[in-house]
Amino acid sequence: MSDSNTPRIAFQGALGAYSHEACLKASPGMIPVPCTTFEGVIRAVREGRADLAMLPVENTTYGRVADIHRLLPQSGLHIVAETFVRVRIALMARPGVTLDQVKHVRAHMVLLPQARSYLDAQGITFEAAADSAGAAADLALADGSVEGVLAGEVAADIHGLDVLARDIEDLDHNTTRFLLMAPDIDLERRSDKMLTTFVFEVRNIPAALYKAMGGFATNGINMTKLESYMVDGSFTATQFYADIEGHPDDANVKRALEELGYFTKMLDILGVYPSHPVRG
């Protein structure tokens, strides 16, 4: 646990990043702990410098967040909640700078294409930055600069920048799903709608995956996510990451997981947590 009496939450990026926004939505009273990498976020919790970790797992536009599924099973952490952040892009600049003065902006390379239509219409050029919120922090220290930054409004609030344009993203449905993770698994049934996330590796037998999935179909369980990824760079060793609706104590879920166990050589539950209201 952290030394402070106030719990801490680690995330990847600078203060004002979308991951920071996810922390503010899910745990507004916690002290944010910025980390450079996803591995650093996990390490901060395992070493006691933070109590919880906030990690992005997927985005409606770009799909799976790279490396996350590889890191989660090895992290020693467990999912205790999920949250969703709509990626709203704002153009910000130093106080006193007007929109017509901004001819060039910086942002993370993933963010720039999402506002391409607006930038082209305004005749604004752009370049990639390592981190959008970090670019906002740099701009705040750049006296006399008339450049802009694309980031979430939280970054403008934190770094004292003015928002010159809001919601300039091309797509109005771009949303990132985040997982809140803790050192210990929480099996309490905290909602009528629970999710269970697990990873597994099937045995090397014919139709193993088909047979493994059969138990979920016959027990009427909705699997909301199933993804595969290679293990240790091997083309033959494949792990699967799955989200299902339900709690391991539910009779139908228990039966399905028992059946899954017959066809797997590894099964690890990563978390049991309430379904977020955004799912409906």
From TrEMBL:
NCBIfam families assigned: PRK11899.1
GO cellular component: cytoplasm
Pfam family, one: PDT
Top-level taxonomy: Bacteria, Pseudomonadati, Pseudomonadota, Alphaproteobacteria, Rhodobacterales
Reactions catalysed, as given in the entry: prephenate + H(+) = 3-phenylpyruvate + CO2 + H2O
Associated pathway: Amino-acid biosynthesis; L-phenylalanine biosynthesis; phenylpyruvate from prephenate: step 1/1
SUPFAM superfamilies per the UniProt record, alphabetical: ACT-like, Periplasmic binding protein-like II
Protein name (database record): prephenate dehydratase
InterPro entries referenced in this protein's UniProt entry, alphabetically: ACT-like_dom_sf (IPR045865), ACT_dom (IPR002912), Chor_mutase/pphenate_deHydtase (IPR008242), Preph_deHydtase (IPR001086)
EC number: 4.2.1.51
Boundaries of every Prephenate dehydratase domain copy: 8-183
Site (Essential for prephenate dehydratase activity) residue list: T176
CDD domains, alphabetized: ACT_CM-PDT, PBP2_Ct-PDT_like
Gene3D superfamilies: 3.30.70.260, Periplasmic binding protein-like II
Keyword terms: Amino-acid biosynthesis, Aromatic amino acid biosynthesis, Lyase, Phenylalanine biosynthesis
Species per Swiss-Prot/TrEMBL record: Sulfitobacter geojensis
A molecular-function term among this protein's GO annotations: prephenate dehydratase activity
Residue ranges occupied by any ACT domain in the UniProt entry: 197-274
UniProt GO BP: L-phenylalanine biosynthetic process
